[in-house]
Amino acid sequence: MATTIISSTADIRAYLDNANPDGIQEALSSGQYGLALDAATEALRAQDHPRWGTDWSDWLAADTVRAVVTAAIAEATEPQVEIEVELVSAVGPRVLVAGDVDTAQVEGALPEGWTVGDNWSNGVRLTDGRMSYPLVHEVRCGCGEWTGVRCDWSGSENETVLIEFMPVHLRASHSAAGNRGVYPVNGALRVRAERSCAEAEVTAEPDWATIVDEPS
Questions:
Q1: Helix (H, G, I), strand (E, B) or coil at 19
Q2: CB 73 within 8 A of CB 29
Q3: 114 DSSP β-pair partners
Q4: How far apart are the two ends of the chain, measured CA to CA in Å?
């Protein structure tokens, strides 16, 4: 039987990935990782490994060799998860997941500003076996633009409103002119803020702040 020449740790990994030595998958499927490691090392011993000579115990004792063998087996036992993000679909933004769901792994794969949030319980299984989870566009409250202090709130865009307000340094000139002018040439700013923060500003300064739209 032809043998594979293994002279580097990359060769080891390629052999384990491509040759699929007997006994490894059987041991892995039964959760016997120690047996899987033994099967892998026995299969490797039967190959040509001139770089480490013919003494198997010395060859296997090399830390780099054992690390590669162990890593290859560990990777083979990891749950395989396929993640697909659809920000535009017939049912709205969603993430499609195939395999065992690791919430942290899925969240980490989402574009910035998007999250599953509280929708993990609202997943729907599709006909192809994948799970579909609704996505929420998460934003940070912008009330710090007028308070001067960054707001800690962040959440769904549906919980925010767009507020227009006049910066303090421009108010005197508008008061002298007798009007606020028209956005954006009047220097007013529009930011998205959590509803209660925006309403508090409108209540406190009704002449200089107004809510101009709300999420549909």
A1: helix
A2: no
A3: 137
A4: 70
Residues 1 and 42: their CA atoms lie apart, in Å, by 15
Which string of DSSP letters, residue by residue, matches 132-186? Answer: EEE-EEEEE--THHHHSS----EEEGGGEEEEEE--HHHHHHHHHHTS---TTTT
CA atoms within 13 A on the CB side of 97: 26
Q: Which helix (DSSP H) or strand (DSSP E) does residue 190 occupy?
A: strand 189-194
- Dihedral angle sign, alpha carbons of residues 49, 52, 55, 56: negative
d(CA 67, CA 199): 59
pLDDT (tens digit, 9 = 90+) per residue, 31-53? Answer: 676 676 677 777 777 777 666 55
Angle, helices 33-45/9-19, rounded to nearest 10 degrees: 110
Digit-coded pLDDT (tens) for 141-174: 999 999 999 999 988 888 899 999 999 999 888 8
**Nearest Cα residue to 64 out of 77, 49, 79:** 49
Structural domain boundaries of the chain? 9-77, 82-137, 141-213
CB 9 within 8 A of CB 52: no
The CA-based dihedral angle spanning residues 46, 52, 55, 60, taken in that order and rounded to the nearest 10 degrees: -80
User: Tokens for 48?
Assistant: 């040509």
Compute the average pLDDT of residues 175-181: 79
Tokens of 50: 């001139």
